[in-house]
Amino acid sequence: xxxxIPLWPERxxxxxxxVDALYIFLILVTGFFTLVVFALVAFFAIKYRQKxxxxxxxxxxxxxxxxxxxLIPFGLFMIMFVWGAAVYMQESQPPGNAMEIFVVGKQWMWxxxxxxxxxxxxxxxxxxxxxxxxxxxSQDVIHSFYVPAFRIKQDVxxxxxxxxxxxxxxxxxxxxFCAEYCGTLHSGMIGEVVVMEPSDYAxxxxxxxxxxxxxxxxxxxFSELGCATCHRGDTQGRGPDLAGLxxxxxxxxxxxxxxxxxxxxxxxxxxxGAKIVQGYRPIMPTYSGIVNEDKLLSLVAYMKSLxxxxxxxxxxxxxxxxxxxxxxxxxxxxxx
Length: 336
Known about the structure:
Structural class: alpha+beta
Strand order of the largest sheet: 3-2-1-5-8
Strand content: 15-25%
């Protein structure tokens, strides 16, 4: 029935039903109380309209009435809060095994890159039934990644990574908008998400132009910048060993700890003096203005790959190797 209403977008993600149910509940509650308020206003306006020789009467308070109009709205508001918080938590916590897509917003287009290296402009191809995580950043001003059919929207801001995830449940082509005014051509910053069957997506991915995987590109940038001369796996490195770094807690020289996530790695490359690892000196130069957002994303992908078990190596052995490397460097790790 709802598909015939133009203002009601198609439901094409695992979030859509929950978001729509909450939205309908809010409309029904606010609509009901709007009608009740107008009905009472009309009733009292007629009942107590001006009359000649009418005697005033004393109206006493009612604890039962006051408790009723306090507890019922409070209960409804708590339902809205808990329901909305549950939907928000579901949308804000990407699954650990989600396929990652890197997104750069700029005036006025969306640049997207798959881990395998395939790049797209204003179009995103994804397989149906697969969890997809978007790691996003803006190259200039604030944008907002919005897919109505998926019921997802997330600001894309300069200087910091934001994440968004979804699972498409039906194939098709779905509108992609920028939902934050970003300049004179904001209305033209549109695109589409193409949801395909897994076999069709694999075929598309195999035939698409690729410059190599994101992690391979990051390794190349890492080598070109000479990072390996300091960030070594032995005790001679002047910078921390990066193997197994991503996602771990890092001890800083001020005694605090920080998680080595995407934003931490980015900050450490552009502003290495912001957070100094305990046991190391602030000698790393800044690469601000030297590496662009695309290269930063590839470096982040490379750092993540260093924390993943190598192909053919058992996970426990890879973990043990990482621990040995850390012990050799005699310090907690951090990009600096």
